[in-house]
Structure of (Fe-S)-binding protein:
Amino acid sequence: MRVALFITCVNDTLFPGTGKAVVSLLRRLGCDVDFPVAQTCCGQMHVNTGYREEGVRLARHFTEVFAGYDAVVAPSGSCAAMVREQYPKLARPGSRGAAAIAEVAPKVYELSEFLVDVLKTDDVGAYFPHRVTYHPTCHSLRGLRLGDRPTRLLRNVKGLELVPLPGAEECCGFGGTFAVKNPSVSAAMGADKTRNILDTGAEVLCAADNSCLMHIGGTLSRQKTGVRTMHLAEILASTEEAQ
């Protein structure tokens, strides 16, 4: 299977280790992984703040870059949801752009979707001997409707103790530009999420979006809680040999 990694802006800029973890994991599972260097932003922030034409241009570029792959895997529920849910609404019906989106968008998967639905596995041979709690980010929960795919994968990680997160379905307060436009509300929501995380006694907070982990992690760090944040891909890429 010829798979392309869609790294996303946040990961490419701030969390390159997550992209490396995805490649390592997928190659371990037998996938031929490419990284198209011409890829850019998916346009989510542009469209969400009213810059529709910029979003259309970025959608057109995305379909050109990722055409021809069997699957496109993103370590981000947020950006995968943008391509699958918003791209079809950007193109004029019957246009060449609409046809290109119809061809590429259904092949774009968030990592846990790809593992469970395409590769048909919920045990990737990972080893991570820590107490972990999982935060289902808004786009992965309400947009992609990932359900229990991430937690199924985590439960099969050798040595990992998965503990439930109180108020798991509540937003952490990041919301992309929401955190910029409504900083006080965003900080209050982040503080609520942090309290719930601490109540679990977890060593590690896991999620499928580094943007949300960055927001929550900032509060955890400022409070000197000692709780680490890790992307799902990094835990799943961990092996006993690498410990």
